[in-house]
Please model this.
Amino acid sequence: MLERIAIVLLIVNICIFGFIKLLNKGAAPMNARGRVNTPASVPYDVHDFCAYHSHIVLRPFEEGGARFIFDCDLPNCDEPIDMIMLAKSGVYVFEHVKAEGWISGIESNETWNERIQFGYGRAPHEEKFDNPVTIVEDKVQRLRAFLDNEGIIVRSVVVFPDFCVLNNIKVFNPNVRVVVLNQLLPTVVKMNNRMGTVLTQRDINELYDYLIQFEIVPEEDEFT
Model:
């Protein structure tokens, strides 16, 4: 009798597991390698990927006195700076790229390439986008000129969503990093540790007070 009950329970469990797996298969997004991403690991899509996600990842720096500025629209910049982190190791400028698939590009090229493979036997979809390293370095140069302080060290990080694969990236500038989101924290930690302390907390607060006036504040109706 117990054996029959055990067999019935086993069959029921198998059926429930198979049903749940079938539901997940239909709902879960696929990453560039064709594997299923769980909502816990990728809680966004390419359309809403922005500085918000990087700020969440880099919040541990706030415990050390770092401060963040978003959408900083400097008078001498053509486009706002996505995110600036002011830390004791210097100033960091972040550029967020809304792309997906396999990413390839060289620092000196005008455009980079994204390739999305939809399935075996099907031709991949390819698109070109503006070189993000050129874009972020232009913003860095304008920020340096605006601050007019040669002693301030400014570095830049280009951030792609987690579901991108950085397939063939060649960047030679030692002050620039290109990463996907889940590489961001260890990358910035390494950059931070390498530089040590170059700004005091007072320096950070003064820079913040100076730059925060250029932060674009969203309209109230954008949240309703």
